[in-house]
Design brief:
Keywords: Coiled coil
Structural class: alpha/beta
Mean pLDDT: 85
Radius of gyration: 37 Å
Distance between the termini: 24 Å
CATH class of the largest domain: Alpha Beta
Helix content: 40-55%
Largest sheet: 8 strands, mixed
Length: about 600
């Protein structure tokens, strides 16, 4: 919630707002006071009816102010005066018990309290100095129809129920935090105790397998040489000629003397060529055989990386969906270890569905394919040696492959692999369903979890948006702030010619600066007289991720989810925006333009 949403419903009888924060906070850019309401600094006069005092209280006395300063302002409030307290504490950490007695002692009633969406201000409360109990306000700041004894009963009952709910939640949070800490300590202890043994066993097994492989290759070479020698021997060839003649005496007997004479002549020529070959071999030594596997059709990436690199035991559908946003190498049992060594992936992902369905890893983890289990364990050991993460993506029941849970994973994700927006049908799904999938259930959101685990580039960075604006005057500044903070898909930065008066955006976590846009996508909001719904950027980004277009916007005919030759651009790829070309020439230059309808009728 913004500070204006909390404050403005309580300015109905207020003509003056008194800034009593002590100068540690500058709240003027957050207020956007309506005409007829003035703002003045605190001169330590009493705060009377028709005035509202701004107060602050937080963990750090410097920027937020302390309890003593808060008490001093409460003591100067007179009947009918109002106040707004902003807190630097988080909602769950708010020490309201430290100021509760002071509020009661100075006859101050809390009318409304709500969380604030700012970096350094986390909550706020509207209070009123009164000699009688005032009706409380609902979430939207409207007074609840009640008075006197009924108001007291309502407040008392709501307090008891709220306290019951909060106690249960706090107990649950404490239990979860304790369990998580115990599990982490157990995992670390087990990892430290067994890591050396596992590495040593892996090295020994690697050496044994390498030795067995070399011996097998040597044996194959010997057998191939013997077969070649036998096939070229005169005795075998004479025997074949005699057997052929015996099977067909009428024809073979007549040809037998000629074949035997040919063998005798051929033996002399072979002996001559062998002697020449021996001399040539002495002059030109053979090149050593290359016994390495050659990897084809694999994706490689070099430092510095700007995309997450995944090596995975994945189903073909999952690998295809992941490849739209990250670098994917699908591992096979015969080349998985070599591929991990050569590509150095950020994270190794093993999908449970790939081990239980059709594919090269079928039956892995079930106990029915011990060679595959051993191969997968070697991949995990190789990943640990490289200092990278290994993740089990458990998108099915764990009982389907119980052996997987016994391996040493860095993390386990119990979720599906998400939905790739391209696979949806917008008309069938509906606009609300697309928004929901985009924000919480898309493949890109799932990959973001992997990126955070691996400390790799976040695929959600591709959704960042820069808003270009040039507000003139307080009215347009207030309108820009309201439109930016009201977006369900909030932009990451606002680029303006002058940053004056935009402190509220900075406090809400939105970067405000001058210069060129840095986000991958750019929205031009130069015309601040235009109404922009809170779903504008969300719908534009949904359409872009669905289509992969370079520019998304509206058309005069209200085309929806279709590629068009021209449009009014509302969201443009940064590189296209900086190219300086006219929108009318974009389609002719090969850029993809995708139309999405504006705000739907309610």
């Amino acid at each position: 919630m913004r500070l204006t949403d909390l404050l403005h419903p309580h300015l109905d009888t207020v003509t003056t707002v008194v800034d009593a924060t002590g100068g540690g906070l500058r709240l003027e850019p957050y207020l956007h006071l309506p005409p007829g309401v003035d703002l003045r600094d605190d001169d330590e006069r009493p705060v009377t009816e028709g005035e509202l005092a701004l107060l602050s209280y937080g963990p750090h006395a410097g920027p937020h102010g302390g309890e003593d300063a808060l008490r001093a302002v409460l003591a100067r409030m007179r009947t009918g005066a109002r106040g707004l307290i902003v807190f630097g504490h988080g909602g769950s950490e708010l020490p309201y018990h430290r100021i509760l007695d002071d509020l009661v002692g100075h006859h101050c009633q809390v009318l409304r309290a709500a969380p604030l969406d700012y970096v350094h201000l986390h909550a706020g409360a509207v209070i009123a100095r009164t000699d009688e109990l005032l009706p409380p306000h609902d979430f939207f700041g409207r007074p609840v129809p009640s008075d006197g004894y009924a108001t007291a009963l309502r407040i008392a009952d709501e307090y008891v129920f709220a306290d019951l709910a909060s106690r249960s939640l706090r107990a649950r949070v404490i239990d979860l935090e304790t369990a998580a800490e115990d599990a982490e300590r157990t995992r670390q202890a087990a990892g430290q105790d067994a890591l050396g043994d596992r590495l040593a066993a892996a090295v020994r097994e690697k050496e044994q397998l390498a030795g067995a492989l070399r011996a097998a290759r040597d044996r194959v070479d010997v057998l191939q040489a013997r077969v070649a020698m036998l096939e070229g021997s005169t005795s075998l060839r004479v025997g074949k000629a005699l057997v052929t003649a015996a099977r067909s005496p009428k024809r073979g007997a007549a040809r037998l003397p000629g074949e035997l004479y040919g063998l005798w002549r051929g033996r002399r020529s072979i002996a001559g060529r062998a002697a020449d070959g021996a001399k040539k071999a002495q002059a030109e030594p053979e090149a050593p055989l290359d016994d390495r596997f050659h990897l084809t059709h694999r994706a490689l990436t070099a430092e510095p990386r700007d995309r997450l690199v995944v090596a995975g035991v994945l189903t073909p559908e999952t690998a295809e969906d992941f490849a739209a946003d990250v670098v994917v190498n699908s591992l096979l049992p015969h080349d998985g270890r070599l591929l991990v060594q050569r590509t150095d992936p950020d994270v190794l992902v093993v999908q449970l569905s790939a081990c239980t369905g059709d594919g090269p890893w079928w039956l892995t983890g079930t106990g029915l394919a011990p060679d595959l289990d051993r191969t997968l364990a070697e991949l995990l050991a190789e990943q640990r040696v490289l200092g990278r993460k290994s993740v089990l993506w458990r998108d099915g029941p764990a009982s389907a492959a119980p052996g997987l849970t016994r391996l040493a994973w860095d993390a386990v994700l119990d979720a599906d692999t998400g939905v790739r927006l391209t696979r949806l049908h917008p008309a069938a799904e509906g606009r609300e369903r697309l928004r929901e999938i985009f924000r919480a259930d898309s493949t890109r959101v799932r990959l973001s979890q992997l990126a955070r685990l691996a400390g790799a580039p976040d695929p959600l960075d591709e959704r960042h948006v820069t808003v270009l604006a040039a507000p003139r005057g307080r009215t347009e500044v207030a309108r820009l702030v309201g439109q930016v903070l009201g977006q369900l898909h909030r932009p990451d930065e606002v680029v303006v010619p002058d940053t004056e008066g935009l402190d509220e955006l900075t406090a809400a976590g939105v970067t405000v600066r001058r210069g060129r846009p840095l986000a991958p996508w750019v929205a031009d909001w130069t015309d601040l007289t235009e109404d922009r719904p809170d779903t504008l950027l969300l719908d534009l980004m949904c359409a872009q991720e669905y289509s992969g277009a370079d520019a998304v916007g509206h058309t005069p005919t209200a085309d929806d989810y279709v590629f068009v030759p021209s449009l009014r651009p509302l969201l443009v790829r940064r590189s296209l925006h900086l190219s300086g070309t006219e929108p009318g020439s974009w389609a002719g230059r090969g850029h993809r333009l995708f139309a999405v309808r504006g705000k739907e009728p309610s």
